[in-house]
Amino acid sequence: MGTTQLESVPEPKYWHLKTVIGEALDSDFTVGEILPNERDLAARFGVARATLRQALEQLELEGRLQRRRGVGTTVAPPRMGVDVSTSQHEWPGSDTDAWQAAECTVAVPPVAVARMLDTDADEATHTVRRVRMIHGQPVAAELLFVPAASVPALPAIDAPSGPALARVVLRELQRLGLEGQDRAVELGSARADDARELDRLPGAPVLVVTTRYFAEGRTAAVSVATYRADTCRLTFGDLGDLQISHHDQERRAS
Questions:
Q1: Buried-exposed string 25-57: b where 16+ CB fall within 10 A, e elsewhere
Q2: CATH number at residue 26
Q3: So what's the pLDDT on residue 246?
Q4: Is 171 within a domain?
Q5: Residues 137, 169: contact at Cβ < 8 Å?
Q6: 65 belongs to a structural domain
Q7: What does the radius of gyration of the chain's CA atoms come to, in whole angstroms?
Q8: Cα distances (angstroms) measured from residue 115 to each of 81, 122, 152, 206, 223
Q9: Is there a single domain that holds both residue 22 and residue 111?
């Protein structure tokens, strides 16, 4: 990485520095390689360490760098592609489902979820908490809200609590004929529970995917899945494949 003095630019110095370092990551470094220490990097770029630190923090938020205690700052691997297309047309818990059931509780859902389910504001639902792992790393946490009307046989089933009950709820949900689903994606901040599940700090940027599942002419379940924005790249199958290359900065949509 050669010496680069920053010229006067209208954007914040740390933001311009982030771009310069990002280009160097593509051309001069490999995945997993350790960056020089902050003092050496600041000297190479002719900036204060505070400016450098801001740029490195931004690159970490964008998933370009990883900071580990006792190791230092390393170049992160490319974001993992996670298919969130609705073309799969399957219930949660199907044989090809990549989620792992963690627990199930009965509680009143958030007001926005109750509206989507068209249930009373104080009506409790079965809330299944699941986690999605890729290469042994947690990349997403999900809350699946299932009203009692969608699993009418559940009270007669002698199911234990925790993951076992979660699996029973998912199994009963699949008895309904899935008629369709829709999804919405938005940027959000990690809540305390999700941050702990995903090994992130509360408030870290996340991608929130909300899914409504339809059966018998109504919304049968609602999923709110929180994905780590620093490690995940959401894809939408053949209907909207978007590829972003850090090397040439080209974007292709098909």
A1: beeebeeeeebeeeeebbebbebeeebbebbbe
A2: 1.10.10.10
A3: 37
A4: yes
A5: no
A6: yes
A7: 22
A8: 31, 11, 20, 23, 13
A9: no
Six token digits for residue 131: 């986690």
pLDDT digits (tens, 9 = 90+) for 158-204: 777 788 899 999 999 999 999 999 999 998 888 888 888 888 888 88
Residue 1 lies inside a defined structural domain of this protein:
no
According to DSSP, the β-strands at 218-228 and 137-146 are antiparallel
Residue 66: partners with Cβ closer than 8 Å, 6 or more residues away = 60, 73, 74, 75, 76
Supply the range of the domain harboring residue 63.
13-75
* pLDDT at residue 137, as a whole number: 78
pLDDT, position 115: 94
User: CA nearest 233: which of 11, 83, 67?
Assistant: 83
pLDDT of residue 5: 57
> CB of 130 within 8 A of CB of 166?
yes
For residue 38, CA distances in Å to 6, 32, 52, 72 come to: 17, 17, 7, 10
Q: Could you give the C-alpha distances from 85 to 22, 81, 239, 245, in angstroms and in order?
A: 30, 12, 8, 21
Low-confidence ranges of the chain (pLDDT < 50): 239-254
